[in-house]
Amino acid sequence: MEISGKTKIMFILADPVAHIRGSVVLTRELRALGHDIAISPLHVKPADLEATVRAIRGFHNVVGFGITIPHKIAICRFIDELLPQARLVGSVNFVRRDADGRLTGDNIDGAGFIDGASESGIAFKGKRVLQIGAGGAGRSIAFSIAAAGATALGLSNRTEAKARDLAQAVRAAYPQCDAFAAPADAAGYHAVVNTTSLGMKPDDPLPIGDPAHLTPDMTVSEIIMSPELTPLLLEAQKRGCRISLGKSMLEHQVRRLEALLAL
Ligand SMILES: NC(=O)c1ccc[n+]([C@@H]2O[C@H](COP(=O)([O-])OP(=O)(O)OC[C@H]3O[C@@H](n4cnc5c(N)ncnc54)[C@H](OP(=O)(O)O)[C@@H]3O)[C@@H](O)[C@H]2O)c1
C-alpha cells in the first residue's frame, strides 16, 4: 500500500491497540471503493485524550478518526458537535475532521446494522424484536431498531441493569416502541438480534435459551464478523429463519463512514 502526501489519513484511538483489526479492514474496504486513504491505530492513554484531539485539529491531511475502548464516551467532551445518534447513545465511534479543524462525532453502529439487515431482506417496522446484549454496539443498535419502527424491543443482557437502563432510554427517545428488559427467549418475537460477543469462541454457549423456540417466520441477525456463520445463525438457518450477517453491518458502516467523512 502506498501512502503519499495526497493520501487521506485516519486514526483509530484506543488503549490498548495490539488487538485492533478495524484499521486493516476499514483501510481495505475504503481502498476497494477507490479512496486513497490509510488508517492507523493510535495508542492513546485516557489522560492524553484531550491533548491528542487538540493536536489532530491541526493535522491537515487527517479526515477523521475512529474511537474505541476506552474512549467512546470520554471523546464527547472534546469535540465540537455530536450528531443526533451519538447524543442519544451517549458515545461516538467516528469523528469527521473538517478542513478548519472542526470535529463532528457520530455513532454509526446502529445505522450500519439496520442497513445490513435491510439488504438481507430484514425490516423491523411493526415487529417485536428480541435483542441480546446491551454493550457498546448494542446500545446504538437498540435505538436504531426503535427508530426503524419496531413496536416492542425485549432487551436481554448478562448484566441485567444495563438492559433495564437501555430499555428506559429507548422508551424515552421512542415512546412508540415498548422497550423492556427480557429473558433471552425467542418465543413470541418476530426478530432476534445478537449484539453480544457470544459465538466468537468455539465453546461459547448460544446467546439465546432454547433454539427450538426459533420458528421459520422469525429473522435472526448477528453482528459478530468472525466466524461469519455463528452457532446461532446455523441454528436459525436449520430452522428456516431468514438471517443477516455481521459482515453486512460492517460493509454498511463503511458506506456510512464514507458519507460522514464526505470522502
Ligand atoms: N459487525 C460490526 O460491524 C460490528 C461492530 C461493532 C462490534 N461488533 C462485534 O460485536 C460484539 C460486541 O461488541 P461491543 O463493542 O458491543 O462489545 P462490548 O461493549 O464489550 O459488549 C459486549 C456485550 O456482550 C456481552 N457479553 C460478553 N461476554 C459475555 C458472556 N460470556 N456471556 C453473556 N454475555 C456476554 C456483554 O454483556 P455485559 O454487559 O454483561 O458485559 C455485552 O452485552 C463483538 O463481537 C464485536 O466484534 C461488530
Summarize the structure.
The protein is built from eight helices and twelve strands. With 263 residues, it is an alpha/beta fold.
What do these coordinates show?
The chain is an alpha/beta fold and 263 residues long. It folds into 2 domains: 8-107, Leucine Dehydrogenase, chain A, domain 1 (Rossmann fold); 110-249, 3-Layer(aba) Sandwich (Rossmann fold). The protein contains 8 helices and 12 strands. The protein has helices at residues 22-32, 49-57, 84-89, 109-119, 136-147, 160-173, 231-238, 246-260, and strands at residues 8-14, 37-43, 62-67, 81-82, 94-97, 103-106, 128-132, 152-156, 178-181, 191-194, 219-222, 242-244. Helix 4 crosses helix 5 (136-147). The mean pLDDT is 97. The structure holds NADP nicotinamide-adenine-dinucleotide phosphate. The site of NADP nicotinamide-adenine-dinucleotide phosphate has 24 residues, from helix 4, helix 5 and helix 8.
Blueprint of the fold:
Blueprint: E1 8-14, H1 22-32, E2 37-43, H2 49-57, E3 62-67, E4 81-82, H3 84-89, E5 94-97, E6 103-106, H4 109-119, E7 128-132, H5 136-147, E8 152-156, H6 160-173, E9 178-181, E10 191-194, E11 219-222, H7 231-238, E12 242-244, H8 246-260
Parallel strand pairs: 1-2, 1-3, 4-6, 7-8, 7-10, 8-9, 10-11, 11-12
Antiparallel strand pairs: 3-5, 5-6
